[in-house]
């Protein structure tokens, strides 16, 4: 039997296999195992599963990328918003509520209070000034003990120092006629609006101030001041020589305080007041008070040490009113400036100005956080603060009496308005009216009636 070698080449995973055949009858018979062609089912299923898992992972990754494209801008906006909201409170970390007051600063402030109290005792001795001197002396001793014993209860001492300072300010000499017309200590009534009028320029001018010359015995003059450039700046005040002209918006004269909105003497913010034909206001971009004499066209400046500006301590309560860091008010024969400082933890500080020399004569520090109120005004040496009730109602809820240093938190004097926002509120001792600039509307109220 003739044997033949039948060579079959089978490619299985890149390998050749030889198979020997045998002739049988007229045929060549060979035994071939089909296992060499078996399909790798298990391996195939494993690869298929891996592909499926890979596909799912890719789809999930694509979804995350798409979600990220949507979420990242939202996260960036949220982060910017948080940074903006926190920026106004940076002072609390740098030199505000959580930063201890140095003992040397305490010493200096106590020394200043002691010398002021001593001067008041020499000029007008009384039991009150004598007692005050004793308390200041005791406080100075306590500070010395803090040095010796290394006990630093600075915040408590700071609060004690503030109260002593307010009492000393009250003891300082004030003109005899300072409160001659103040027959009632605390305001008890505010009428419905007796004047309601849109400003003479446009309803879009939502920030500004208006009123009547607050100097007793002065010529009857009404004034109007509207802010431009983002409700921040101004350089003119519109003057009227009669109430009739004001109501009719005619026969007015625009007095130029500065040559442009960006001039160093331009007005910043809505805390403007007119006293004895002189405009008092915050100078552009600085913690300074300017006075512009309309008659002589002379501008004076005075630095307001430590005052927060550029929306650091604006009036807020319901919503912040930008550029209201410094508020000027007039009362009797004085001009008042209301502001806040880091040193007083953002609480309201009240300073009395001599309107002629433009010097600070007295300063009181309150416990009222400036951002927690809508607006303030002064009546007979008493600071009043208001808060938002709703779009059409405001409420006087707080008073600080500079005569006694007493703070009253239980007031509730509601009064009407025509819109939510208040840019300026000032009291006039001549006609005993409150004047409000209310989102472009000019309102006036009777008081003490």
What does this structure look like?
This is Olfactomedin-4-like. Residues 181-449 form the Olfactomedin-like domain. Residues 1-16 form the signal peptide. The chain has 449 residues and is an alpha+beta fold. It has six helices and 25 strands. Strands 18, 19, 20, 21 and 22 form a five-stranded antiparallel sheet that branches. A four-stranded antiparallel sheet has the order 3-25-24-23, with no helix packed on it. The protein has a four-stranded antiparallel sheet with strand order 4-5-7-8. A hairpin with a 2-residue loop joins strand 14 and strand 15 (334-340).
Question: In short, what is this structure?
Answer:
The chain is an alpha+beta fold. It is built from six helices and 25 strands.
């Amino acid at each position: 039997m003739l044997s033949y070698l039948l060579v079959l080449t089978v490619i299985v995973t890149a390998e050749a296999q030889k198979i020997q055949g045998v002739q049988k009858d007229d045929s060549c018979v060979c035994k071939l195992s089909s296992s060499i062609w078996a399909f790798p089912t298990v391996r195939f299923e494993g690869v298929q599963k891996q592909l499926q898992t890979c596909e799912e992972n890719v789809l999930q990754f694509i979804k995350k990328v798409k979600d990220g494209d949507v979420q990242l801008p939202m996260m960036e906006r949220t982060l910017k918003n948080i940074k903006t909201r926190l920026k106004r409170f940076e002072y609390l970390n740098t030199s505000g509520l959580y930063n201890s007051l140095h003992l040397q600063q305490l010493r200096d402030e106590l020394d200043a209070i002691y010398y002021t109290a001593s001067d008041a005792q020499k000029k007008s001795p009384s039991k009150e000034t004598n007692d005050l001197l004793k308390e200041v002396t005791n406080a100075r001793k306590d500070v010395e003990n803090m040095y010796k014993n290394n006990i630093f209860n600075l915040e408590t001492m700071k609060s004690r120092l503030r109260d002593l300072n307010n009492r000393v300010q009250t003891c300082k000499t004030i003109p005899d006629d300072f409160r001659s017309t103040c027959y009632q200590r605390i305001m008890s009534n505010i009428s419905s609006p007796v004047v309601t009028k849109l400003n003479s320029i446009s309803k879009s001018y939502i920030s500004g101030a208006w009123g009547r010359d607050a100097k007793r015995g002065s010529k009857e003059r009404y004034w109007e001041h509207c802010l431009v450039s983002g409700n921040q700046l101004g350089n003119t005040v519109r003057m009227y020589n009669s109430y009739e002209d004001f109501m009719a918006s005619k026969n007015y004269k625009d007095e130029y305080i500065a040559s442009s909105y960006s001039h160093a003497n331009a007005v910043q913010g809505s805390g403007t007041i007119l006293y004895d034909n002189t405009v008092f206001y915050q100078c552009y971009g600085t913690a300074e008070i300017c006075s512009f004499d309309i008659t002589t066209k002379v501008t004076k400046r005075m630095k307001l040490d430590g005052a927060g500006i550029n929306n650091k301590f604006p009036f807020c309560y319901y919503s912040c009113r930008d550029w209201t860091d410094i508020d000027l008010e007039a009362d009797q024969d004085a001009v008042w400036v209301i502001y806040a400082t880091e040193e007083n933890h953002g609480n309201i500080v009240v300073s009395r100005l001599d309107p002629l020399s433009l010097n600070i004569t007295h300063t009181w520090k309150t416990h009222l956080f400036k951002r927690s109120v809508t607006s303030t005004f002064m009546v007979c040496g008493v600071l009043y603060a208001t808060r938002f009730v709703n779009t059409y109602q405001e409420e006087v809820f707080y008073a600080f009496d500079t005569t006694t240093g007493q703070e009253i938190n239980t007031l509730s004097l509601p009064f009407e308005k025509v819109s939510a926002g208040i840019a300026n509120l000032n009291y006039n001792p001549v006609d005993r009216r409150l004047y409000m600039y209310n989102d472009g509307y000019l309102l006036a109220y009777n008081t003490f009636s």
